[in-house]
Amino acid sequence: MILEICANSYQSALNAQSAGAHRIELCSELSVGGITPSFGLIKEVIQNTRIPVFVLIRPRSGDFCYSDEEFEIMKSDIQYCKEIGCSGIVSGVLTPTNEIDLERTQALIELSKPLAFTFHRAFDCVANPTKSLEQLISLGADRVLTSGQKTLAIEGLDALQKLNKQAADRIIILPGSGINATNAAVFKNSRFLEIHTSASVKILPNEVQLPSMFDTIQTVSDIDCIKNIVNVIN
Predict the structure, then answer these.
(1) How remote is the C-alpha of 56 from its chain's centroid?
(2) What range does the domain containing 220 cover?
(3) How far apart are CA 226 and CA 21, in angstroms?
(4) Bond preceding residue 114 cis, omega within 30 of 0
């Protein structure tokens, strides 16, 4: 089983590798569901890690419907990731009615080639997951990151198992959200090939007190948490 760590920083990426994770999904700002990391962060992680790095391409928080300008930014970011040596792209676009935007998602998949393409958790917003999965298979996506349309993947296990059966080796179902050493074996025993988690812990604040408007919780992917999951799935 492959363990993908959602790393929100340079340190999180290094911790993922040190602890034995098999792949990194690199992003920023997990508190808003993740957005595209800076070019500088992507470069440093690529240069200083040996495991595959997939990069989240999401220009902002909020919904997954993008303006023409935002879509151009996404394409530019994918091009950079290809040039810098990333192994995969994590992205996707929805319509205002929460269906797969077939034209734009197809464009992102084609632009990403030959890199692997993961359709991200926008999938958990779609109105018809069965139909949407078939569409993503037709478009050529390699995997779908999903919690089974629940807050936590363990809560969406039944839906995830149905999607995995429907996928039938045509696309990888990548369960994610709240997976840890306590429940990781459930997903392995359910015959999922991969799992996704941030395995994060809060970073204790510095002694310097910031005004409340800047007082957001910082997290980092934890070496011990990751090692514990690796031990379970191995």
Answers:
(1) 6
(2) 2-233
(3) 7
(4) yes
CB contact at 8 A, 170 and 146: no
- Report the number of distinct structural domains present in the chain: 1
Residue 136, classed as helix, strand or coil, is helix
Residue 194 CB neighbours (<10 A): 20
The CATH number covering residue 220 comes to 3.20.20.380
**Over the stretch 3-25, which tens digit does the pLDDT of each residue have?**
999 999 999 999 999 999 999 99
Q: Which of 105, 119, 214 is nearest to 167 (CA)?
A: 119
- Amino acid (1-letter code) at residue 231: N
121-168 tens-digit pLDDT = 999 999 999 999 999 999 999 999 999 999 999 999 999 999 999 999
Round to whole Å and give the CA distance between 222 and 180.
11
Buried b (16+ CB within 10 A) or exposed e, 76-93: ebbebbbeeebebbbbbb
| Burial class, 25, CB count within 10 angstroms (exposed 0-12 / middle 13-18 / buried 19+) | buried
